[in-house]
Design a protein that fits this description.
four-stranded antiparallel sheet
C-alpha cells in the first residue's frame, strides 16, 4: 500500500515515536537527542524539548497529555510539559540504564503540601491517646 502522508521532519534517523491519545500530535526522537512535537494534521513540527544529551531511549505521554517523560542514554529521566512553553518540570538521575519509561495512571499526583498534611494526619492517628484521668502520686494510707 502507499503511504497516506510523507513528511521529512529530521536529517537524522528517528528512533522513537509516541502518538498523543488526547490531541492529534506526534512526539518523536532522533539519534541525536532531539525530541520534537509535530501536528499530525499538517505535518508541521512546532516544538522541541531542550536539555537532552545523547540519544533518547524512551518517550511516554501522561494520561491527560499535559506531560511527557523522556529517558536518555545520559541516564536522566526528564519530564516536560507539552503545552506551548514545553518547559522542563523534573529531572532525575537514575543509576541504571533506562530502557523504558511508563506512567502509572492509577497513582494520583499529590502536591507536596497535600503529602505533608496527610503525613501529619497519619502521625496523629497512630499516636496513643493519653489517659484522661491522671494518677495520683500520693501514697495510700494503710491501716494496721
Amino acid at each position: 500500500q502507499r503511504p497516506v502522508n510523507d513528511w521529512e521532519v529530521s536529517k537524522h534517523p528517528i528512533y522513537h515515536l509516541q502518538a498523543s491519545h488526547v490531541r492529534p500530535e506526534l512526539y518523536f526522537a532522533d539519534n541525536m537527542g532531539n525530541v520534537q512535537q509535530m501536528d499530525m494534521r499538517t505535518g508541521h513540527v512546532f516544538g522541541a524539548f531542550k536539555g537532552i544529551a545523547g540519544a533518547v531511549k524512551s518517550i511516554s505521554l501522561s494520561e491527560d497529555g499535559a506531560k511527557i517523560a523522556v529517558a536518555g542514554l545520559d541516564r536522566y529521566v526528564r519530564v516536560f510539559e507539552t503545552g506551548s512553553m514545553r518547559r522542563p518540570l523534573h529531572r532525575a538521575y537514575v543509576k541504571q540504564r533506562v530502557s523504558h519509561v511508563v506512567w502509572d495512571w492509577e497513582h494520583k499526583d499529590f502536591s507536596t503540601q497535600e503529602i505533608e498534611e496527610q503525613e501529619a494526619e497519619d502521625i496523629w492517628e497512630t499516636m496513643d491517646k493519653a489517659a484522661l484521668k491522671k494518677k495520683s502520686n500520693k501514697r495510700k494510707a494503710v491501716a494496721i
